[in-house]
Amino acid sequence: MLYPTTTPTRTVLDLSGLWKFMLETEGALIDATVPLPTTDVMAVPASFNDQSAQQKVREHVGYVWYETTFNVADFLRNQRLVLRFGSATHEAWVYLNGQEITHHKGGFTPFEVAINDHLVAGENRLTVKLSNMLDFSSLPVAHYDETHDADGKLVRHLDENFDFFNYAGLQRPVKIYTTPQSYVADVTVVPEVDLAQHQATIDTRVATQGDVDRVRVTLLDATGQAVATGTGKHTQLTLPQVHLWQPLHAYLYTARVEALKNDQVVDSYDEPFGVRKIEVTNGQFLFNGEPFYFKGFGKHEDSAIHGRGLNLPANVLDLNLMKKMGANSFRTSHYPYSDEMMRLCDREGIVVIDEVPAVGLFATFGFDLSGKQDNTWQVMRTAPAHRQAIREMIDRDKNHACVVMWSIANEAANFTDGAYEYFKPLFDLARELDPQNRPCTYTSIMMTTAKTDKCISLVDVIALNRYYGWYVDTGDLAKAETATRDELALYQQLYPDKPIMYTEYGTDTIAGVHSNYGEPFSEEYQEDYYRMTSKVFDEFDNFVGEQLWNFADFQTKFGIQRVQGNKKGIFTRDREPKMVVRYLSDRWNAIPNLG
Ligand code: GCB
C-alpha cells in the first residue's frame, strides 16, 4: 500500500483536527444517518483516553464514535478520491453521509476506501464507529467478559494479556488523497547488491489500474539526479557506484514511477528506497557484508496526552536521543508503528525490527517459570487475525530500507504443545510475502528455554526477552550474572549457527530514587544491572545485539507492579534521562555498528 503524497498528478487533504466524539452507552444506540448528537471534541490523530479528563472515557470498554465534516474542491471531483486511515484502533466501521462504506479490524495498520460514489455536493459527513475491545481472536490478545450491574446494565470487562495501556481511537492521520482515474496502485522495490562490484540491480514491480499502456521507472539519487531509467511493469535497472544505506548513514534513492497513456504521464508516484544487503549466516547478522551489532531499544508509541497517537516531535526527539547515545536500532514492540515513524527511520538510518501486534498469546498472563504446559494453542483463535496482521505489515513496509527483520510475535507460549503447528504457517507466510526475503524472528519469554522452545527452528535470529536480576533473582546481580551467562552459553552450544540477541532486559527504575545500597527501583540498581549484562554479552561471539527494555517509561494497565505505568525506561516518559543513560552512551558510542 502506497503512502499518500502529493505529486504532479496527486494531492492530499489532511482531515487532522478536532472531531466530534462520544461514547456509545448501552441503550442509547447511535444512528449514523444523522449528525452525532454531541458537542464534545477529540483531537485527531491521538488516543482519546487522555484527552477527556473523565475516568469513564479513559477507561471505557466498548464503542466510541467520531465525526467530522469536509468539503472537496470542485476541481478535484473528477479525480479518484481515496479515504485513508493510518490506523483505527482496534476495529472501525466507517460511514460517509450516513452510509457504511468500509470496515476494518486490526488497530495498527492502514486501510483505505475510494469515496467518489458516496460524496455529496458541498459538505460531507464522515462518521466512524470504533471498538477498543479485544479477545482471544484478536491481536493483541485480552480476556473479555460481560456482566450486568444491579440495574441489569451490561458491563464490559477487558483484562489485557499485555503490559501497555489499551489506548485507542483515531491514533494516526486520516487523509483523503487523489489519484487520476488510471493510476499506479502499488510499487515493489527489491535492491540486489553486488558488494564486490559496488553496484546494485534495482528490481521494480509496478501494479497499475485503468487505462495505462506503459510504465516508466526512473531512479533518482539523493540530489534528485536521474541515474537510471527503464520501461515496463517489471524493470531491472543497474546502479553502478551505488551508495549503500548503512546503519546511521542513510542514503535514499527515489523510484519515480510514471504510468503512461499514449506517451503522456497519467500518474506519477515517488517511492523512496535504500540499497542494502541483509544476510544471516554463521551466527552473524550481516549488513552489507559486515557483522552488524544491534544497539538500542524496545519502544512504545507512548507519550503524555497523545497516548499512542502520532507525536512527530516525540519521534524526532527519540531518534535524536538514540543517535546521541550511539544506538542504531529499535523494535516496534508490540505492533507496527506509524508510516511516519518508518519513513523517518529510513531517512535517519535507524535500523528497525518490525513487529506484528501478536502479543499476549498466552492462556494466562503472568510469570510462571515452572515451565508447565498450558492450553494456549487450544484456546487461541488468533490465527486469522495473525495472518492478516502479517499480510498488512509486510504490504505496508516491504520497501522500507530501515526494516531488516520481521518479528512474528512477542513472547508467546512457545514451550507448549501446539506452538510449532501454530507458528510454522505464519513464518512460511511472512517468508512468502516479503519480496526482500528478510530474516524472521519472534521474541522469547523467560518461560521458554533453550531446551523447551518448540519453535527455534523457525527463526533466523534467536531473540531473547530476559529479566534475570528483576523478575528472577530480584536484587541479586551476582546470581543474575550467572544465570545470564549460563543460559547464553547453552543457546550458543545448542544453536551455534544462529545469532542471538537480547530484545528485552531491564529493571523498573523510579527517576530520582537513589540508594547507597544499590536497591531495586533505584537509578544505581539500573546502572549496575546494565553494567552486569554488558559484561556477559561481551563474552559471546554469536551475540549480535542488545535492545534493552525500554526506551522510555510508558503507561500500562493498573497492577501492583506498576506505578503509573512501567518504569523500565532509561528515559522518563517525558524523555528526561535516568542516570544509566551516561553509562550506556559511553558503551554504545564505543561499539562500532559494523565490523
Ligand atoms: C515483557 C514484555 C513487555 C513488558 C516487559 C516488562 O516481557 O514483552 O511488554 O512490558 O516484559 O516490563 O514486564
TrEMBL record:
<feature type="domain" description="Glycoside hydrolase family 2 catalytic">
    <location>
        <begin position="278"/>
        <end position="591"/>
    </location>
</feature>
<dbReference type="InterPro" id="IPR023230">
    <property type="entry name" value="Glyco_hydro_2_CS"/>
</dbReference>
<dbReference type="InterPro" id="IPR023232">
    <property type="entry name" value="Glyco_hydro_2_AS"/>
</dbReference>
<comment type="similarity">
    <text>Belongs to the glycosyl hydrolase 2 family.</text>
</comment>
<dbReference type="Pfam" id="PF00703">
    <property type="entry name" value="Glyco_hydro_2"/>
</dbReference>
<dbReference type="Pfam" id="PF02836">
    <property type="entry name" value="Glyco_hydro_2_C"/>
</dbReference>
<keyword id="KW-0326">Glycosidase</keyword>
<keyword id="KW-0378">Hydrolase</keyword>
<dbReference type="InterPro" id="IPR006102">
    <property type="entry name" value="Ig-like_GH2"/>
</dbReference>
<protein>
    <recommendedName>
        <fullName>Beta-glucuronidase</fullName>
        <ecNumber>3.2.1.31</ecNumber>
    </recommendedName>
</protein>
<dbReference type="InterPro" id="IPR006101">
    <property type="entry name" value="Glyco_hydro_2"/>
</dbReference>
<dbReference type="InterPro" id="IPR008979">
    <property type="entry name" value="Galactose-bd-like_sf"/>
</dbReference>
<dbReference type="InterPro" id="IPR036156">
    <property type="entry name" value="Beta-gal/glucu_dom_sf"/>
</dbReference>
<dbReference type="InterPro" id="IPR013783">
    <property type="entry name" value="Ig-like_fold"/>
</dbReference>
<dbReference type="InterPro" id="IPR017853">
    <property type="entry name" value="GH"/>
</dbReference>
<feature type="domain" description="Glycoside hydrolase family 2 immunoglobulin-like beta-sandwich">
    <location>
        <begin position="183"/>
        <end position="276"/>
    </location>
</feature>
<dbReference type="InterPro" id="IPR006103">
    <property type="entry name" value="Glyco_hydro_2_cat"/>
</dbReference>
<dbReference type="InterPro" id="IPR006104">
    <property type="entry name" value="Glyco_hydro_2_N"/>
</dbReference>
<feature type="domain" description="Glycosyl hydrolases family 2 sugar binding">
    <location>
        <begin position="14"/>
        <end position="180"/>
    </location>
</feature>
<dbReference type="Pfam" id="PF02837">
    <property type="entry name" value="Glyco_hydro_2_N"/>
</dbReference>
